[in-house]
Design goal:
With 432 residues, the protein is an alpha/beta fold. The protein contains 9 helices and 29 strands.
Length: 432
Amino acid sequence: MIYDLIVVGGGPAGLAAALSAWEAGLRRILILERDRELGGILNQCIHNGFGLHYFQEELTGPEYAGRFVRLLRETDIQVLSDAMVLNIGDGDVLRVQTVDPIMGCRELSTRTVILAMGCRERTRGAIGTPGNRPAGILTAGAAQRYLNIEGCLVGRRAVILGSGDIGLIMARRMTLEGAKVLACLEVMPYSGGLTRNLVQCLEDFGIPLYLSHTVTEIQGRNRLERVLAARVDENRRPVPGTEIAFDCDTLLLSVGLIPENELTRQAGIEIDRRTGGPVVWENMETSKRGVFACGNVVHVHDLVDFVTMESRRAGAAAARYVLEGPAAGEEGALELSNGEGVSYTVPQRIHKVNGNARQNEKAEIFFRVNRVCGKSQILVEDGEGNRLAAFRRERMAPGEMERMTLPAALLERAAGGRLTVSVREEKGADVQ
């Protein structure tokens, strides 16, 4: 059997993409999920705050995932869980390893593929924190799974290193379970999480946030006993004489997420060094024809609602690829680049005539700034330096992803084969 579409990953991105492709007319669809159940990371995110943009109501993570799982059951989309994709070969043949002793390792053929593997956490080894290697040091996501799924509280006195959203949420979660969270340390001079999580998870529980601080030493033989922290300078180097000691039994690391792209690289797909994800067109097609990508495997999102919206676009584009043929070529394409104040842009390329839709109504752009900005203008310029658009923002921060929509008329005016997105802060703008 040759599938019309195989979706790699059954988290929020994969579910939304598969359902969108089904709605667009594809019927032979298979979702491959390496875990035992669909839903991905949402299954362990029992806090609320999901769905405000997509469903216009507040849901927990399992509730959000459950809505898509129920929709999936109303279709004939096939699901194979406990299945790991080993590689994508020529002709879109996927080699899959399953736990089924009869099925074992097999090859599956498909006309198109959507990559939706999500992301993983950075570990202690990735940041090189010095000191001993006792028990009690975990990533925030691992601690979340232990607590919310396995029912195991990982410690009683904790320090959080990093102020990403998972770390902030776990500071509140552990406090609610009776643990004492002593502090949250952030090496940057600004938080890496959403403002609402800073307020609801730290401020509301009286947990101090130390900006421009990091862990300089880990002490303990069998179990963690103490961590030493210090303020850092503008080069992120510890400042002597600023050390703070925290007597604790647990250190949770919330020091960044990395798109899960080993499979993508193995397939020879172009990777953007800024995002760590594949280079994509506005229809979420990668540099390999017929292979699309969406969600955190492309770039790390802060809201699952935006993952869903992006993934639905990928699913619809994959359906058009099968039903109508490949997208337009690269002739007349626009390259997107990040200018001053911007760390990355997604997509990285835009068809002036939108691929398999044959006409481009609009292009949605996601980007992040590289510093906290007060009142600012987002500027869009073409390859010849002509300003095509300007958007106002009251405040922007690296921890909160920004998005804007570029209409077809603007794309048609672009000269020089390039669009640059930059940020110009107004004089005297308040960045607090």
